[in-house]
Design goal:
With about 240 residues, this protein is mostly beta strands. The protein has two domains: about 20-80, no CATH class; about 90-240, no CATH class. It contains four helices and nine strands. The strands form two sheets. Strands 3, 4, 5, 6, 7, 8 and 9 form a seven-stranded antiparallel sheet that branches. Strands 1-2 form a two-stranded antiparallel sheet. Strand 8 and strand 9 (about 230-240) form a beta hairpin. The chain is elongated, with a radius of gyration of 29 Å. The relative contact order is 0.14.
């Protein structure tokens, strides 16, 4: 199909799925729109999008991807919908969450409380690489995420009918993603498009749909609390690993 040949592209019944030429579109007097099918269901190369041709050429420097599944027999549905097996790969996804909360009662009129939440998460390929297509075809996108949460409150009872409740807080959330192309460096010298802010960071990935995701999730956590006189201290920590 890299050459535009869809002559073996069939449906579940083995019928060729027709590819129509948009340059032949005709609208009849009654509003009916028709297009002619490409000869032999093959798209001429002179109709290929130039950016797609350039991008595909760059991606193929890591190898020309071809069907590898036993069911990938040309002219069958398996060749269309189940033609590539990803035999290995994994992602390491640790999630480290911690939090601490404290309350202090000065007397029956004054009380303060505070909270701090800590979260660090990441997604990186496992030792054998990510669970994606190989080479530059990979759509893996790693993750580095950090979140810090602060909360504070103060309650002051002026009288049985008048209460002052003051509170403040803030969230500091940071996240960074990098595709494989960004690690290569100077990607824009290989492929770029007009009006893209930075081709080294923003282009380009080939995305594929209808993939099944699988894996394992391991999680553990610990929480505890203790009251010391007028004080109450709570601690919590969670850790996830995919």
């Amino acid at each position: 199909m890299y050459d535009g040949d869809f002559s073996k592209w069939v449906d579940a019944k083995g019928n060729v799925i027709p590819i129509y030429d948009p340059t032949t579109q005709v609208t009849a007097a009654n509003g009916t729109v028709t297009r002619a099918q490409f000869t032999n269901n093959k798209i001429p190369k002179d109709l290929f999008n130039t950016a797609s041709v350039q991008a595909l050429g760059v991606f193929q420097t890591s190898g020309k991807l071809a069907p590898n599944a036993p069911s990938a027999i040309q002219g069958t549905q398996g060749y269309v919908s189940n033609n590539y097996i990803i035999a290995s790969g994994s992602n390491v996804q640790p999630v480290d969450k911690r939090s601490i909360k404290g309350d202090h009662v000065f007397n029956e009129k004054h009380r303060i409380s505070g909270y701090y939440g800590f979260d660090r998460e990441s997604v990186t390929p496992g030792p054998e690489g990510p669970l994606t297509l190989p080479g530059l075809y990979s759509n893996n996108n790693d993750l580095q995420q950090a979140t810090d949460v602060l909360r504070f409150s103060w309650d002051w009872a002026f009288s049985p009918t008048k209460l002052n409740h003051f509170y403040a807080g803030g969230n500091n959330w940071r996240q960074d993603h990098k595709p494989p192309q960004e690690y290569i460096g100077n990607w824009k010298s290989k492929f770029c498009m007009v009006n893209v802010p930075d081709c080294n960071d923003n282009l380009v990935q080939l995305n594929f749909s209808s993939y099944t995701q699988w894996g394992e999730l391991h999680a553990m956590g610990r929480a505890g609390g203790q009251r010391i006189g007028k004080h109450r201290l709570c601690l919590q920590r969670r850790f996830h690993l995919d």
